Each structure stands twice: as structure tokens, then as C-alpha cells.
């Protein structure tokens, strides 16, 4: 790919021929169906700087979704953007949430933008209705990794030299995006703001810069929630996602304080009951961490193969909660007692802040991925043998 760099003074946006309307081209092209053959699913996960608090989301590369090469050289601007612009594609609100569908819409968008005379997809990033993040314009993942430059886009007239754009599949004039799309948007927007030091207040809709309905009245009304979630995530150092269109999830009612010999109170009662349920009974659940509870804690820690330090911290709490589950494979859409055990274990181990409702939704998937990354596991959001082993083993 042929990229060249330019300074702020010489940065210019690509000009679109006047006979095309960006939204009109998208609508017309949608009738022709998705273009191209589906490629195998593949994702690139960029690496954040060593001190970054937020891990990057999985982003499907241009190579993975089968992008065509740019028709001319793309410019890389050697400074940080100051705005993050949210768009909707004004495309059908499809119910095919697969990776293959994400690849198809990415190829279609690139074709629509080629038809406008642009060198490549106009936006740097896209998100499908299934919640799959994709690189839009070639080189955007690489520059985001570095956090000091960005590829000049063609998504917001006269302001491309100061803005990175995310196109969200669908049309959101009257309805809101899927929760999966929104959860990925929170993660990607948080990572972009972290990498480029974009103020949360500068997450804006396309209409902020011109006369357009983008990104739809319903979506624009929800952007304060997006800004709030990004701010909370940056502050907490982990991704926190509200239920879009409803009140934020309730905080977990159970806390997991560090306990040791001499501790007393309700948390000790809960510890004693969990130890008994896991086959290491300390006797009466009297709320006093005495010699019998100490012996039970040490016995449990030895049984799971961790250091028997007699202290009940996040990992021991997490193992106690996780061992309520049989260890079935869990993924988005799962529900039941094992999901409840998983959510409790993640809250204990990672302070994940999950509502314990037994429903494996986007927030639980994000928490699983964060845990997997922190334990050097494959961050696929699926709780399989290795993830259960880590949780149950007090890792």
C-alpha cells in the first residue's frame, strides 16, 4: 500500500464529485445486494502502549474482510485527531449478525465510496450490527496503535483533517443500534480516545459539522450515554457498557473484600458458606475468621493449586464462585446458573461490575475478554476449558 505523510498545514480532504450523495449512494447500492465473496473470518488485535489501561478491541483488518487496494495514495497526518465522529450507514437494519455479514457490508461500503471517486473507504473504522469492528480505510489500525498519527479520511466534509470516523451499520432515525453494536462502539471509542487523547466531549455526531441527519435522531439522543460510558471506562480502566435505551445496569450487590484471620462480619459468613459448599467446611458460619476458617481457607487454596497464603483476595474469591459451575462452554446468548457463577467469579476476580442476572450479554462478553487478555488467554469472549481452569484455579 502506498501511503505518504503530510503536515497539518498541508492536510486536505478528498473531494467527492457533486453528482453523488454519500447517503444516496449507500441506499441505492443496498438494493444491489452485498458485493464480493465472503472471506474467512480473521481479526487483528492491536497492541496498546505499555502503560495503557484499556486493551484494544478486536478489529477485523482490511485484508481479512477482502478490501480492494486504494485507488491512489492515502495520506497519513503526523498529529493526533481532536474529534471522534459517529456515523450511521443509512443502510438496512439487517438481522444477520455474523462475521460474514460484517465482511460483506465492509466491502459494500468501500465500493460505494469508490463510486464517489474516493481512494478508499471514507471512514477509518466500521461496526456491523452484529458488533464486529472493522478497519475501514487502509492503515487505520496501524496508526491507531501508535497513537500519534492517523490516516486522512473522507467522512466529514472540510473537517477530515481533525477527525476520525466510525460508521455504524444501519439507520437510526427512529430506533437505536443493537446492544452488540453499541457495546463494541463503547470499547472502540474508549480505545480511540485513550490512544489519541481525544476529550470525551469531542465524541460528536456527523451533523455536528454540517447539514445532515447523520447519525439519526434516535442515535444522537443516545450519544450522551456513549460519552458517559467512555468516560467511566477510561476512569475505571475497564470497559463499562450501559443498556442502550434503558437505565444503566445496577451495580453488583455483592462485594469481595480481602479477608484474613481476625476479620469479622457478613463477608466472612459468606466466605464460610462458600468454603462449606466447596467441600472445605470451617464449621459454623459465625462471621468470625478464626483458626477453623483459616484451616479451611488453606485447605481450599492447596486443593486448587494456588499459594496457601491464608488470605482471601480476588483470586480466591473468584475460584470459590467459579467452582459452583460445571464448566460448560459459554458464549454470548447463554443463560442460567453457570452464567451466574461466571458473573460472580468475574466480579470477584476482576471487579467487573457485572449485574448478576444469569444472562451472557455484551457486558459479560467484554468482562470475559478483559479477563482472558489479563491471563494471556485467547481473548475470544468464549468461556471454554482454559478460561474455566484459570478462574477455578485462582489465576
From TrEMBL:
GO terms for biological process: peptidoglycan catabolic process. GO terms for molecular function: N-acetylmuramoyl-L-alanine amidase activity; zinc ion binding. Residues 72-225 form the N-acetylmuramoyl-L-alanine amidase domain. InterPro entries: Amidase/PGRP_sf, Amidase_domain, Peptidoglycan-bd-like, PGBD-like_sf, PGBDSf, PGRP, PGRP_domain_met/bac, TAT_signal. Residues 57-210 form the Peptidoglycan recognition protein family domain. Belongs to the N-acetylmuramoyl-L-alanine amidase 2 family. This is N-acetylmuramoyl-L-alanine amidase.
Amino acid at each position: 500500500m502506498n501511503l505518504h505523510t503530510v503536515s497539518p498545514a498541508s492536510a486536505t480532504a478528498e473531494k467527492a464529485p457533486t453528482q453523488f450523495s454519500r447517503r444516496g449512494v449507500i441506499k441505492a447500492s443496498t438494493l444491489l445486494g452485498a458485493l464480493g465473496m465472503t472471506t474467512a473470518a480473521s481479526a487483528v488485535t492491536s497492541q496498546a502502549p505499555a502503560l495503557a489501561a484499556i486493551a484494544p478491541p478486536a478489529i477485523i483488518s482490511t485484508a481479512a474482510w477482502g478490501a480492494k487496494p486504494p485507488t491512489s495514495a492515502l495520506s497519513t497526518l503526523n498529529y493526533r485527531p481532536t474529534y471522534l465522529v459517529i456515523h450511521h450507514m443509512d443502510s438496512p437494519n439487517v438481522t444477520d449478525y455474523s462475521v460474514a455479514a460484517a465482511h460483506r457490508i465492509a466491502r459494500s461500503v468501500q465500493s460505494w465510496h469508490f463510486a464517489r471517486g474516493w481512494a478508499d473507504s471514507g471512514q477509518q473504522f466500521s461496526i456491523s450490527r452484529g458488533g464486529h469492528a472493522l478497519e475501514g480505510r487502509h492503515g487505520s489500525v496501524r496508526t491507531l496503535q501508535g497513537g500519534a498519527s492517523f490516516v486522512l479520511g473522507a467522512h466529514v466534509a472540510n473537517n477530515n483533517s481533525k477527525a476520525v470516523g466510525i460508521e455504524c451499520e444501519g439507520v437510526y432515525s427512529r430506533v437505536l443500534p443493537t446492544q452488540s453494536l453499541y457495546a463494541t462502539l463503547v470499547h472502540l471509542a474508549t480505545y480511540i480516545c485513550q490512544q489519541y487523547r481525544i476529550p470525551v466531549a469531542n465524541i460528536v455526531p456527523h451533523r455536528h459539522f454540517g447539514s445532515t441527519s447523520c447519525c439519526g435522531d434516535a442515535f444522537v439522543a443516545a450519544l450522551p450515554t456513549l460519552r458517559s460510558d467512555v468516560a467511566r471506562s477510561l476512569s475505571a480502566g475497564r470497559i463499562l457498557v450501559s443498556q442502550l435505551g434503558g437505565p444503566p445496569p445496577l451495580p453488583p450487590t455483592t462485594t469481595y473484600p480481602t479477608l484474613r484471620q481476625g476479620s469479622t462480619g457478613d463477608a466472612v459468613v459468606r466466605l464460610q458458606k462458600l468454603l462449606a459448599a466447596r467441600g472445605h467446611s470451617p464449621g459454623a458460619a459465625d462471621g468470625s475468621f478464626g483458626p477453623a476458617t483459616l484451616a479451611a481457607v488453606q485447605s481450599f487454596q492447596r486443593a486448587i493449586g494456588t499459594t496457601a497464603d491464608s488470605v482471601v483476595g480476588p483470586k480466591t474469591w473468584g475460584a470459590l464462585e467459579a467452582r459452583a459451575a460445571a464448566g460448560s462452554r459459554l458464549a454470548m446468548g447463554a443463560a442460567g446458573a453457570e452464567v451466574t457463577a461466571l458473573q460472580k467469579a468475574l466480579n470477584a476476580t476482576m471487579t467487573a461490575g457485572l449485574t448478576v442476572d444469569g444472562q451472557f450479554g455484551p457486558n459479560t462478553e467484554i468482562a470475559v475478554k478483559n479477563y482472558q487478555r489479563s491471563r494471556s488467554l485467547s481473548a475470544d469472549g468464549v468461556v471454554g476449558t482454559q478460561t474455566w481452569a484459570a478462574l477455578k484455579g485462582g489465576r
